[in-house]
Amino acid sequence: MPANLLNLPAYTVVALEKSEYDYHIDAEVKRAVTHCIHCQAENPQGFGRREQVVKDLPMHGKRVGIYVTTRRYRCRACTKTFYEPLPDTDEKRAMTTRLVAWMGKQAIKRTFASIADEVGCTEFTVRAVFSDYVNELERTIRFETPKWMGIDEIHLIKPRGVITNIQNNAVVELLANRNKETIIKYLSGLQGKESIQYVAMDMWQPYKDAVEVSLPQARIVIDKFHVVKMANEAMERVRKSYRESLTPNQRRGLMHDRFVMLKRESELNDREVLLLSGWLKNYPELGLAYRLKEDFVKIYDAKTKEEALRRFVAWEIAVTADVRDAFQDLIRAWRNWQPYILAYFDHPVTNAYTESLNNLVRVMNRIGRGYCFEALRAKILFSEGAFKKQTIKPKFERRREPQVATRNFEMALMREMPAYAFTAAHQPNEPAREINFGADISTLVRLIESGEL
Questions:
Q1: Which of 38, 160, 308, 399 pairs as cysteine with 426 (C-beta 3.0–4.6 A)?
Q2: How far is CA 186 from CA 109, 150, 167, 179, 378, in A?
Q3: Cα–Cα distance list, 298 to 8, 174, 230, 302 (Å)
Q4: Cα distance between the two ends of the chain
């Protein structure tokens, strides 16, 4: 029997049986017990044996079970009985520690059911191993608290709250829901929350209430993207309603109108400019809706919030009765959230990651079937290779000047010894430290789309 069959030095392989799907390996613990595990008295006496099955990493496409004849002992001093401990075995379950570690990592990439089938255990066991693995990751991995925080949502099975580091385009937390109580609980327990300066969000009242309760020092800024999105949606309502009143031939003449009209005027190519000018000339109501959308976006070109407010007032006057119903939600939102929308012009903080986050939602929804929320959360937050990190070097410290006698002695040595003997630098008092900003969104999308996660 090959000694390295298991590659577990603490065990001796005695026998091997194999079937179509499994390896059955008989093994013994090499090192005998010499002390009582209760009182540490020497030379406990043997008191029977039992066979214990320990699952191990799959080999050659087969499940592996290690059958260990475990010895039972009775202590001569305290009279307590105990079984010999099994090396390299998980404390909670009859599995090797390497199998448990492997299952934890695999559960981020794969479904629990597929892992259970490959290992030969229950799906419940995989879930428990995964839970312990994630708890350990959360204990050892700490994301830097962002000074510019984003609160948004991502739809994974249902809407979830997502916390981001705006400056570094990274996800730092994924919450089970976006309720006020959930957001407050997270923000209140956040280490270093006093350093948060700005929080960008959409117009969702629970977000605002939670930030005002938990982060009174932070300035709330309504994200530009969400406000502009409402302008696009208003124009879309006009376009769809207007199309319904047209004949089939007229609708064919507006082919691809949605794609063109949603683009900014400055981003249109020559062909699209020609198409759009024809549509707006022939269909005045569409032209009005498009112009209102474009003029609203131009409000964000203002240099100050006073100028932005003047632009909005002028824009609202231009909203005629024909299209006012379509733009009413946008007008109401501006009035209800005006101080927080205008805060953008003092502090232009925006969720620049929004498009990347939308891509992440798309790919996560595509692979999400068969995954629970906890697994999807771990895939986003703890995937290897997705962290955005930065090493902070200690401050430069001026070297201490040696005393004259010491300097003369060193100069004398330098004449006798090679120069490289004196290249060791003065060690700084502070070591370098690594900052983890969270999971980089663009990297996550790339890893998932390429099948690496």
A1: 399
A2: 26, 13, 20, 11, 17
A3: 68, 33, 14, 7
A4: 38
329 in Cβ contact with 234 (< 8 Å): yes
264 DSSP 8-state letter: -
Distance CA 146, CA 164 (A): 8
- Choosing from 38, 66, 89, the residue where a domain stops is 89
Of 359, 330, 335, 336, residue with least CA distance to 232: 330
Question: Which helix (DSSP H) or strand (DSSP E) does residue 51 occupy?
Answer: strand 45-59
Alpha carbon distance 344, 121 (integer Å):
54
Among 54, 89, 124, residue at a domain's last position: 89
**pLDDT tens digits, one per residue of 203-262:** 999 999 999 999 999 999 999 989 999 999 998 888 787 776 666 766 665 655 666 666
Tokens of 47: 């008191």
Closest CA to 435 of 149, 151, 168: 168
pTM of the model as a whole: 0.74
* 49: β partners: 71
Sheet holding 433-440, edge to edge: 219-222, 198-201, 148-156, 158-165, 170-174, 433-440, 387-392
CA distance linking residue 133 with residue 104, whole number of Å: 5
Total domains in the chain come to 2
Q: CA separation (Å) from 21 to 65, 305, 315, 351?
A: 11, 70, 71, 51
Domain that holds residue 275: 224-346
Flag whether 17 is in a domain.
yes
pLDDT (0 to 100) of residue 422: 47
Strand partners, 219: 198
Strands (E), 376-445: 387-392, 433-440
Distance CA 47, CA 72 (A): 5
- Give the torsion sign (CA, 320, 326, 327, 328): positive
Q: What is the largest CA-CA distance in the chain?
A: 102
Q: Give the per-residue pLDDT at 257.
A: 65
DSSP 121-175: S-HHHHHHHHHHHHHHHHHH--PPPPSEEEEEEEEESEEEEEEEEGGGTEEEEE-
